[in-house]
Specification:
Oligomer: single chain
Function: Is required not only for elongation of protein synthesis but also for the initiation of all mRNA translation through initiator tRNA(fMet) aminoacylation.
Helix content: 40-55%
Bound molecules: 5'-O-[(L-methionyl)-sulphamoyl]adenosine
Largest sheet: 6 strands, parallel
Protein name: Methionine--tRNA ligase
Shape: elongated
Cofactor: Zn(2+)
Organism: Iningainema tapete BLCC-T55
InterPro entries: Anticodon_Met (IPR041872), Met-tRNA_synth (IPR014758), Met-tRNA_synth_2 (IPR023457), Methionyl/Leucyl_tRNA_Synth (IPR015413), MetRS_core (IPR033911), Rossmann-like_a/b/a_fold (IPR014729), tRNA-synt_1_cat_dom (IPR032678), tRNAsynth_Ia_anticodon-bd (IPR009080)
């Protein structure tokens, strides 16, 4: 069922964000993580397609636009532009930005609908139930909070619906879905989410409605234009439309020719069912291969509640980036929150982590070591080579294992572990330099020992910078430049050629052909707000 691509390509998606409001840090979270994955695969030399975009149809958007007195298209244009500019601020290198109001998308949705229609998986029926407009999803009565409130959008009441809709025969795919989960245990990750889906599917699947009446904002059902295609049916197919080359005719065949199947759908846990149950069933019905993996991360919470546009308890990512820089924001969320689990945001913790890791451990280490090189070695790379340093040297011993360890962590999306493992090398380097006291070695005239210490520390900082580059590309580039490598990690084509993963992820490549740049701080210490 799943096709493993032999070519080294990697296609991944973020969800397509609703444009009912400007992005908040929760939406930015998935996108930052996706960018890190994309950068990591590019670093390894794969050709990568990172897809993101906006989900613009449906009742939620129509109503929000109406409440602002704007036509939905104008409103979507403004909001979608807000997402694009935030991605730029956060240094996200997406390859595609799909908007579901894109004209070409309609052709893809219609062709897909037609395939499923011809399979006989769509029929007209009566839909009765409680609908959460913020989720754009029907809820079971037992899931609701008191006062008929949605469990996710706890300040919103669900609405009763009793209308004729077209249904998709999800129930028909129960056994096939179970076989998919069984055959590919990694299809849904992490494990806790997989179990959630297995429980849900094992309880028995019900068909779901894929059309709405009394809704104009969306594509009409080709066989019955009084009905509008359900926003989720339309949105999931955005992943397919996004695969089209810019000028390509919008057919499924064109869209699926190069990058399909998608390697990874990164999503938040609230939209797991759509991606891990509905989406594969829709693809089965259309006779298409399955994506390789759906990963559902946790929520960013504030005071324990999901941060969200509907709840209005969000944190503005623009302020955060403007205040602290893109690398700082990316680093904090990826290092401090275990991907897959929920995590609370707290500004004073945010500042402490950045000061401790980036300003002190990494930044000061580089700065003071380069200054010692200036003072004790006339600013040149110490004439030491990897071979001069034994394998059991305290830093080399860590460095030799680190590349593989961090690669595994990035590949399995445990970003916090990747960052922590790298920081351990940085911390060991700080300890090493304090213990070895190069200033004393200098006074004692032990030049060779001194040079070995400085070399080992700088090489460790280099390795740390390389391995952290998917997370903090600007800081890593700065470090690499100070160490005399003309590498900009934001230019990934150049990086994959000039700093290939197989070589740069191992310890001991610094040579005295490098010409060090002028030392300068890579991350300025942040002051805690006085009343913070
Ligand atoms: N439009 C749908 C997705 C369609 S994909 C074909 C949607 N959009 S959304 O804007 O509401 O949410 C997009 C993503 O942001 C989801 O993965 C959701 O989990 C994530 N987040 C929204 N709030 C979040 C937090 N507070 N924390 C972490 N992620 C959160 O659903």
């Amino acid at each position: 069922m799943s096709v493993n691509k032999i070519e080294k390509t990697f296609a991944l998606t973020t969800p397509l964000y609703y444009v009912n409001d400007l992005p908040h840090i929760g939406s930015a979270y998935t996108t930052m993580a996706a960018d890190v994955v994309a950068r990591f695969h590019r670093l390894k030399g794969s050709s990568v397609l990172l897809i993101t975009g906006t989900d613009e149809h449906g009742q939620k958007i129509q109503r929000t636009a109406q409440s602002k007195g704007q036509p939905p298209q104008n409103f979507s244009d403004q909001m979608s532009a807000g997402f694009m500019s935030l991605w730029e601020l956060l240094n996200i290198q997406h390859d595609r930005f799909i908007r579901t109001t894109d004209e070409r998308h309609q052709a893809i949705v219609e062709e897909f609908f037609q395939r499923v229609w011809e399979t006989g998986d769509i029929y007209l029926g009566q839909q009765k139930g409680w609908y959460c407009v913020s989720c754009e999803e029907f809820k079971e009565e037992r899931e609701l909070l008191s006062g008929h409130r949605c469990p996710i959008h706890t300040n919103k009441e669900v609405e009763w619906r009793d209308e004729q809709n077209y249904f998709f025969r999800l129930s028909k795919y129960q056994t096939q879905l179970q076989a998919l989960y069984q055959e590919f245990p990694d299809f849904i990750q992490p494990e806790s989410r997989r179990n959630e889906v297995l429980n849900f599917v094992n309880q028995g699947l019900q068909d779901f409605s894929i059309s709405r009446v009394n809704l104009e904002w969306g594509f009409p059902i080709p066989v019955d234009p009084k009905h509008t295609i359900y926003v989720w049916f339309d949105a999931l197919l955005g992943y397919v439309t996004a695969l089209l080359e810019p000028e390509e005719t919008p057919t499924l065949e064109n869209a699926l020719s190069k990058w399909w199947p998608i390697n990874l759908h990164l999503i938040g846990k609230d939209i797991l069912r759509f991606h891990a149950v509905y989406w594969p069933a829709m693809l089965m019905s259309a006779g298409l291969p399955m994506p390789n993996q759906v990963f559902g991360h946790g929520f960013l919470t504030k005071d324990g509640q999901k941060m969200g546009k509907s709840l209005g308890n969000t944190l503005d990512p623009i302020t955060l980036v403007k205040c602290y820089g893109a690398d700082a924001v990316r680093y904090y969320f990826l290092k401090e929150i275990e991907f897959g689990k929920d995590g609370d945001f707290n500004e004073s913790r945010f500042i402490n982590v950045l000061n401790a890791d980036l300003a002190n451990d990494l930044g000061n280490l580089l700065n003071r070591t380069l200054n010692m090189v200036k003072k004790y070695c006339a600013g040149n790379v110490p004439p030491v080579t990897n071979e001069d340093i034994p394998k059991d040297h305290p830093l080399k011993a860590i460095g030799l294992r680190l590349g593989e360890q961090v690669k595994d962590a990035y590949e399995t999306l445990v970003f916090s572990q990747a960052c922590e493992a790298i920081l351990l090398l940085v911390q060991a380097s700080n300890k090493f330099i304090d213990e070895q006291a190069p200033w004393t070695l200098y006074k004692q005239g032990q030049q060779q020992a001194l040079e070995q210490v400085l070399y080992a520390v700088l090489e460790s900082v280099r390795l740390a910078a390389y391995l952290l580059s998917p997370v903090i590309p600007n800081i890593s580039s700065d470090i690499y430049q100070q160490l005399g490598f003309g590498i900009d990690f934001n230019n990934q084509v150049q990086t994959s050629i000039a700093a290939p993963f197989t070589i740069h992820s191992s310890w001991g490549i610094l040579t005295n052909q490098n010409k060090f740049g002028e030392p300068h701080p890579i991350f300025k210490r942040i002051e805690q707000p006085k009343n913070g």
